[in-house]
Amino acid sequence: MNVERLGRIARVLRVRERLTQESLAERAGVTRRAISALERGHALTLRLGVLDAVFRALGARLDVRPFWNGPELDRLLDAAHAALGASVKQRLERWGWVVRVEVSYSRYGERGRIDLLAWHPATGILVVIEIKTDLVDVQDLLGSVDSKARLARFAVEQFGWDVRAVVPAIVFLDDRTIRNRVARVDALFDRFSLRGRAATLWMRTPGTLPSGLLWYTAGPPAVPSRSSAPRVRRPRAA
Q1: In the chain, N or C: fewer CB atoms in 10 Å?
Q2: Order of strands, sheet of 98-107, starting from the edge strand that comes earlier in the sequence
Q3: Percent over 70 (pLDDT), the chain
Q4: How many CB atoms lie within 10 A of CB 196?
C-alpha cells in the first residue's frame, strides 16, 4: 500500500468536495485525528474499516489487493471457490435438485457465469446460487446476483427445464470474519428472507417461495500433504 499516495488522494478528494477535516470526519463517522493521519501518509496506523469509511464518505471505493506468488494466488482462490461449490452441489443433489455448474449466459449485452443453477423437477423452482469465499464489495455482489437471477431463465433454455419460479441465493464460506462482515451490513441483505438453517431446510423441502436464500457452509476438509504426514519408524531387521 502506497500510504503517501493514499493520503494525497484523500486530501484531493476532500478539497474537491469542499470539506474540512472535521466535516469529513463527521460524515465518515471517524475522528478528525484519523483524517489527519491519513492525509499525512500514516494510513498504516489506522484500521482498514476506518479507511474504507473515509473513502466511502468521499464517494470513492477502497480496493485493497494482496499479491502473493504471482498467479498462484488466483489459482488458490479458484481452488477454494471450486471446492465450496462442489460441496454445495453434492448436498443439493442428495436433496433431489438437478444442478449445473458454471453456466454461461449472454443476453441483452450482459454476459457472465452463474456459479450453480439448481432446478427442482417436482416444483419447477430454479435457484440461482452465488458462491462466495469472501465478502469484499456488497453492492457489487447484490447487483451481480440480481442480474443473474433476472437472466437465469434464458441460461437454462439449453437444458429444457420447465422453470416456474426463480429464487436468488448466496452461499458464504462459514468463516467468522465473513459472518462479521455480513452482520455489519445486514440491512442490505433484507431481500434474502430465509437464512441459515431456515434456508437449508427450505432447500430440502421447497414450499412457499422466499424472496431469497442465504446460508453458510463449511468447505470440504483439507487433505493433508505428504510432507505433513507423521513419519512411522520401522524396526530394523535383526
Answers
A1: C
A2: 98-107, 110-120, 125-132, 165-173, 213-217, 194-195
A3: 86
A4: 11
| Residue range(s) in the chain whose domain bears CATH number 1.10.260.40 | 3-57
Mean pLDDT of the chain: 86
Stretch(es) of the chain classified as CATH 3.40.1350: 72-217
Architecture of domain 3-57: Orthogonal Bundle (1.10)
pLDDT tens string 30-85:
999 999 999 999 999 999 889 999 999 999 988 776 666 555 555 555 777 888 99
Give dist(CA 123, CA 164) in Å, integer: 8
CATH code of the region 72-217? 3.40.1350
CB atoms within 10 A of CB 66: 5
Say yes or no to pLDDT of 107 above 60: yes
Predicted pLDDT of residue 72: 56
